[in-house]
UniProtKB/TrEMBL annotation:
<keyword id="KW-0732">Signal</keyword>
<feature type="signal peptide">
    <location>
        <begin position="1"/>
        <end position="25"/>
    </location>
</feature>
<dbReference type="Pfam" id="PF13343">
    <property type="entry name" value="SBP_bac_6"/>
</dbReference>
<dbReference type="GO" id="GO:0030975">
    <property type="term" value="F:thiamine binding"/>
</dbReference>
<protein>
    <submittedName>
        <fullName>Iron ABC transporter substrate-binding protein</fullName>
    </submittedName>
</protein>
<dbReference type="GO" id="GO:0030288">
    <property type="term" value="C:outer membrane-bounded periplasmic space"/>
</dbReference>
<dbReference type="GO" id="GO:0030976">
    <property type="term" value="F:thiamine pyrophosphate binding"/>
</dbReference>
<dbReference type="GO" id="GO:0015888">
    <property type="term" value="P:thiamine transport"/>
</dbReference>
Length: 368
């Protein structure tokens, strides 16, 4: 699985009833008391090195020391999380997860299968509508945006937008992070280039993205190899498209040898989002709701940002001016993030079908 000042503490019962899908009205104080009485929260698939989760979990523990966090299988994937709910429907023991953090496609399917329950956090209205279930069954938690990672030792003038990649100065320089016939990362990069070229979304943006990559390949700028960190560092593929959190982590790991510049393109800024949900069979439902309140508070959201995963409430946090300057200084231009587009699951599926089916015929470059 690839899977931070103000915690809201003064909600009234009326306000929480208006924004939450709790079956019976609860104030925050009542929710905290109920969660403490349960005394435990069971999570799954939350590696401490991913998205700042180590600090996020520590923050929750410090705020609510009466609640023990039982962490299951930190390295599991989204599919494993869903199977864990299914396997423990009748089990209230330590192997039954209360909450899940999964890829976008797993939210709607888990809802359809009756595996998750609705809950709307107090900050619900600041989560983009396109990144949450209207009934509160699942909701985006953090996202990455597609960006350019540029080896400054090889490329002096970093491209600032998708169209720039076609310039002659970037000959034999541009790579994808994966094979667009099979890699979601690569598929969404092609999709984003199509949106920047005037695509309207879904199949149309995918088709325009294929034409863009045909131009890129015909111009001799596209390098058909997987743009991994080693290839970027060695200059084999000095420009790579990837999720920003991967690129930012790569930049930090290289520590200036070579210097890596991260550019969020000015045109289409496409986001890939993960979602949170509460198991329909959660043994500790109040602790699960309190966990969600913490994750979607300013404190919890900034925790993810510290780990380079953009919190879903980023625009709201930026508007309120609560993001520490030292965090913003480590990121590409914040104004570009404010343009982030969250493709729907339907749009993503249409793009995947169009790109995986027609890449060979239109672009004709086999990524190895």
């Amino acid at each position: 699985m690839f899977k931070f000042t103000g915690k809201v503490l003064s909600l009234t019962a009326v306000a929480l009833m208006a924004t939450s899908a709790i079956s019976s009205a609860q104030s925050m104080d009542e929710l905290v008391a109920a969660a403490k009485a349960e005394g435990q929260l069971t999570t799954i698939a939350l590696p401490h090195s991913w998205c700042g989760y180590g600090d996020v979990i520590a923050g929750f523990k410090a705020k609510y020391p009466e609640i023990t966090i039982n962490e299951l299988n930190p390295d599991a994937g989204s599919g494993d999380e869903i199977e864990a709910i299914k396997a423990n429907k009748d089990n209230k023991g330590p192997q039954a997860p209360d909450v899940i953090d999964v890829g976008l496609s797993f939210g709607p399917s888990a809802k359809a299968d009756g595996l998750i329950q609705p809950y709307k956090v107090s900050t619900w209205d600041t989560i983009p509508d396109s990144a949450k279930d209207a009934d509160g069954y699942w909701y985006g938690d953090y996202y990455g945006v597609l960006a350019f990672g540029v080896n400054k030792a090889v490329v002096q003038n970093a491209p600032q937008d998708w169209a720039d990649l076609l310039k002659p100065e970037y000959a034999n320089s541009v790579a994808l992070a994966g094979d667009p016939r099979t890699s979601n990362n690569a598929v969404m990069s092609v999709y984003a280039s199509g949106l920047a070229a005037g695509g309207t979304g879904g199949q149309d943006a995918a088709a325009k993205g294929l034409q863009f990559f045909k131009q890129l390949n015909d111009a001799g700028n596209f390098v058909p190899v997987d743009g991994e960190a080693a290839a970027v560092a060695q200059g084999t593929t000095p420009i790579v498209m990837n999720w920003d959190y991967n690129l930012l982590a790569m930049r930090d790991k290289m520590a200036g040898n070579p210097e890596i510049e991260i550019v969020v393109p000015k045109g289409a800024v496409v986001a890939g989002v993960y979602v949170q949900a509460i198991s329909a069979y959660a043994p500790h439902p109040n602790a699960a709701k309190l966990w969600m309140e913490y994750l979607y508070s300013d404190e919890g959201q900034l925790g993810w940002l510290k780990g380079y995963c953009h919190p879903i409430r980023f625009n709201d946090l930026a508007k309120k001016g609560v993001i520490p300057k030292e965090m913003l200084d480590k990121l590409p231009a914040a104004e570009n993030y404010e343009k982030a587009i969250f493709p729907t699951l339907e749009e993503q599926n249409a793009a995947k079908k169009e790109i995986s089916t027609n890449w060979d015929a239109i672009v004709g470059a086999v990524v190895k």
